[in-house]
Specification:
alpha+beta; 17 strands; four-stranded mixed sheet; 5 helices
């Protein structure tokens, strides 16, 4: 589960992903304004180079304009009958019980959001084995939860099934009781960016839903999420979901011992921009292990944050892409974060382990 970023101090806000300092190094768009020189001062080679520069600049300008038009068309198609009615809060049932014999994280029993640990979570061989077990369970639960997605199913039914699968495995559903969160899983539908609280709302034909599963097994958290299609989904929303997953894959591909964290955001932004999608800056990935949320903060947009990956380290990468605005509004429940303009958002997440030569995706079956 991601946590949110504010432009002030490092702090936890009303989200499962706490609020951290946002470095918003915006991407530059080359719009094709050529540099002016006097022709008499340029050689033939220089003139040729100048012409190539202008042509290249115009191509970039044309690409940016083409992507803008494409995005506008997708937004219009999503609005005309395909776009879902605005989300409304359904009835939230009481939290489900967890058997006494199942070990619980230290934050259970308090409605206060835990402090974000400043220590990187780097594991020895025993710790890595525990992380693999927790993450494999989370991936298996998520896969089974996805099979429940269909029109007429409520997100509360998904929560109940996820809860039962986790406790049957002798684990604890990490979101339950985290800062007072009332459910065992996050279910974020359509314009909900993240932290959706399961309720009585039925899924509709054409919806998309992100299911975010975290389990606490033998003292370690495994964290993963995926956006699923419900019934007959529009091409525009299908493409958004597909590209979001590709962005996650590209972010993971740059990870290895000694690599800089900022490469993740650069690679994700480059791919998202090809399709004209926005990359949400407020919600970031995080270190995960014996502690649910810790540093480093993993920014998914272009940034200049310092820091390098270390072998044996575990953290999440979990980009959120949107068809429209990257700004969000938080509901009065202090959790549900929806796109400010009501357009769809998609998210994918893996917990990864940094190795000497790359990254191992732990949240796989």
């Amino acid at each position: 589960m991601a946590f949110a970023t504010s432009s002030a101090t490092l702090q936890v806000a009303s989200s499962l992903h706490g609020e951290a300092l946002s470095s918003s190094s915006k991407s530059n768009i080359f719009m094709g304004a050529p540099v002016t020189f006097s022709a008499s001062t340029l050689s033939g080679k220089q003139l040729h180079s100048r012409k190539q520069l202008v042509v290249f600049s115009k191509k970039l300008s044309g690409l940016a304009e083409a992507m803008r038009i494409r995005r506008e068309r997708e937004l219009k198609s999503t609005t005309k009958g395909i776009r879902r009615p605005p989300l409304r809060r359904g009835k939230v049932s009481p939290r489900l019980p967890v058997p006494d014999h199942i070990p619980k994280p230290p934050y259970v029993g308090s409605n206060l959001l835990p402090e974000i640990s400043s220590e990187y979570q780097i594991h020895d061989s025993e710790g890595i084995a525990c992380m693999r077990a927790a993450c494999e369970l989370a991936a298996r639960v998520l896969d089974n939860a996805g099979k429940l997605v269909r029109p007429s199913v409520t997100t509360n039914e998904i929560d109940k099934a996820v809860h039962q699968m986790i406790i049957d495995a002798g684990a604890y559903p990490s979101p339950l009781g985290y800062g007072g969160f009332p459910k065992s899983v996050c279910t974020s539908v359509n314009e909900c960016m993240c932290h959706g609280i399961p309720d009585s709302r039925q899924l509709q034909d054409g919806d998309i839903i992100n299911i975010d599963v975290t389990v606490y097994l033998n003292g370690y958290h495994g964290d993963t999420s995926k956006t699923f299609l419900c019934g007959d989904v529009s091409d525009a929303m299908k493409r958004l979901v597909k590209v979001t997953e590709e962005c996650l894959e590209r972010g993971i591909a740059v990870c290895k011992d000694g690599a800089s964290f900022k490469k993740i955001g650069k690679r994700i932004s480059e791919h998202a921009e090809k399709y004209g999608y926005g990359v949400v800056e407020r919600f970031v990935g995080h270190g995960v292990g014996t502690v649910f949320h810790s540093e480093p903060f993993i920014y998914h947009h272009r940034n200049d944050q310092p820091g390098h990956m270390v072998e044996g380290q575990t953290f999440t990468i979990e980009p959120i892409l949107t068809l429209g605005s990257i700004e969000c509004v938080t509901w009065p429940d202090n959790w549900t974060a929806v796109a400010a303009d009501g357009t769809p958002a998609a998210q994918f997440e893996h917990t990864i382990l940094i190795t000497r030569t790359g990254a191992e995706i732990l949240t796989t079956i």
